[in-house]
Design goal:
12 helices, Arc Repressor Mutant, subunit A, alpha+beta, two-stranded antiparallel ribbon, Beta-Lactamase
Length: about 325
C-alpha cells in the first residue's frame, strides 16, 4: 500500500485521495523517541510544536523549554512511552499566549501524539486553531487511546489485505486510489514493464474505452478486462450505510474460462453496480430467448445453467415467454 503524505489543514479535512505506505506496524511506541521530538525544535529553529489529532485538530502545544527540561532527567524519560511523553507536556495555550511565541516563525511542523511529523501549519493556522481551544488533559488521553486503537486496527486490516493471495486495488467514489497491495503492484509491473504509476492506473480504470465487460453464464457474474493494464478483474462496491463510498477491485492474471463478452447497447448511465449487473443479465437472457426460439433446454445449455435456474431467472427478470415453447 502506498501513500504520498499530503499536507493537512487544521479544519479536520484530509485529502480523500491520500494513500498510506505501510512498511511496518504504524503503532510502534518505541519507533519515535523523546529525543527525536526535541530534534524537531533544533532542526526547524522553532520555539514550539503543535500537537494535532488524527483529524488534524489542535490538541495542545509543546514548548521547547518544557521538552528540554523533561529530557534533562534521563532516568525518568527513558522508561516513558512517546505518547505519554507528548501528552504530559502538551499545553493548552490561548491566542494571546501564542502571539509573541510565533512572531519570528512563519510555519510550524505538526506532530501527532506519537511524535510523528504529520504536516505543517502556518502561524495563522495555529492562531486560528488556538481560538477554538486546545484539548484538556482528559481529552488528550482519550485521543491517545483512540489513536492507538485506530492505528492497530489499520495495521490488522493492512495485514489481511496484503496477505490475501489476490491482487487488490481500491478506489473511493471519485475514482481516487485508496489502497493496493504488493500483489497488484507486481501484476502491473509484470504486465506493463514499468513501475506502478498511481495516476496512470486511475486513468486506465476510469477510461470506459479501455475497459470491457464480460460475464460468466453459470453464475451471472460480471467482470472486466482493462486493455491498458492487461488485467481481468471483478469490481465490488464498498458501502457505508446506503451510500457507495468506493470500489474494491479483485484482479486475476487471465480471463476466466467460459467468459463471454457482454451484449452491447445496454444503457448504464446513472446505474449502481447491482443495477448494471441486472441490466446485463436481463439483456443476455432476452437475446438468448430470441435466438433459440424459446427452447429452454437449448438456452439453459447455452448459458451453462440448469433449466430450473433458467426459469427462476426468467421469472425474476420478467421475461415474457408468450407464444413460445419450452
Amino acid at each position: 500500500m502506498d501513500r504520498d503524505k499530503a499536507e493537512q489543514r487544521p479544519d479536520g479535512d484530509a485529502p480523500a485521495e491520500d494513500l498510506k505506505k505501510f512498511d511496518e506496524n504504524p503503532y510502534q511506541p518505541d519507533r519515535v523517541k523523546p529525543e527525536d521530538v526535541v530534534r524537531i525544535f533544533y532542526e526547524r529553529d522553532t520555539p514550539l510544536v503543535p500537537v494535532v489529532s488524527n483529524r488534524n485538530m489542535l490538541l495542545g502545544v509543546l514548548l521547547k523549554e518544557d521538552v528540554v527540561a523533561e529530557l534533562s532527567d534521563i532516568e525518568r524519560v527513558k522508561h516513558q512511552k512517546i505518547d505519554e511523553f507528548v501528552s504530559k507536556l502538551s499545553r493548552k495555550m490561548t491566542f494571546d499566549e501564542l502571539l509573541p511565541a510565533v512572531a519570528n516563525n512563519r510555519s510550524f511542523a505538526t506532530i501527532n501524539l506519537f511524535g510523528e511529523v504529520t504536516g505543517e501549519w502556518t502561524r495563522l493556522d495555529l492562531l486560528a486553531a488556538s481560538e477554538k481551544g486546545g484539548g484538556s488533559a482528559t481529552a488528550i488521553r482519550r485521543e491517545a487511546e483512540k489513536q492507538r486503537e485506530e492505528q492497530a486496527l489499520e495495521w490488522m486490516i493492512y495485514l489481511i489485505l496484503e496477505h490475501l493471495p489476490r491482487a487488490l486495488y481500491a478506489v473511493n467514489d471519485r475514482g481516487k486510489t485508496i489502497f493496493f497491495n504488493s500483489h497488484f503492484e507486481d501484476l502491473v509491473v509484470a504486465n506493463t514493464g514499468a513501475e506502478i504509476d498511481v495516476d496512470a492506473v486511475e486513468k486506465a480504470f476510469a477510461d470506459t474505452d479501455a475497459n470491457e465487460f464480460f460475464y460468466r453464464p453459470e453464475g451471472d457474474e460480471i467482470f472486466f478486462y482493462n486493455k491498458e493494464l492487461d488485467i481481468h478483474y471483478e469490481k465490488v462496491p464498498m458501502t457505508s450505510g446506503e451510500r457507495t463510498v468506493g470500489f474494491l477491485i479483485y484482479c486475476s492474471r487471465s480471463k476466466t474460462d467460459h467468459a463471454r463478452p457482454v451484449t452491447p447497447h445496454v444503457e448504464t448511465a446513472g446505474m449502481s453496480l447491482n443495477q448494471m449487473l441486472d441490466a446485463f443479465v436481463r439483456k443476455v437472457l432476452v437475446d438468448a430467448v430470441k435466438t433459440h426460439g424459446y427452447n429452454l433446454e437449448t438456452i439453459a445449455k447455452e448459458l451453462g445453467i440448469s433449466r430450473p435456474a433458467l426459469l427462476k431467472k426468467i421469472q425474476k427478470y420478467r421475461i415474457s415467454m408468450q407464444g413460445g415453447h419450452s
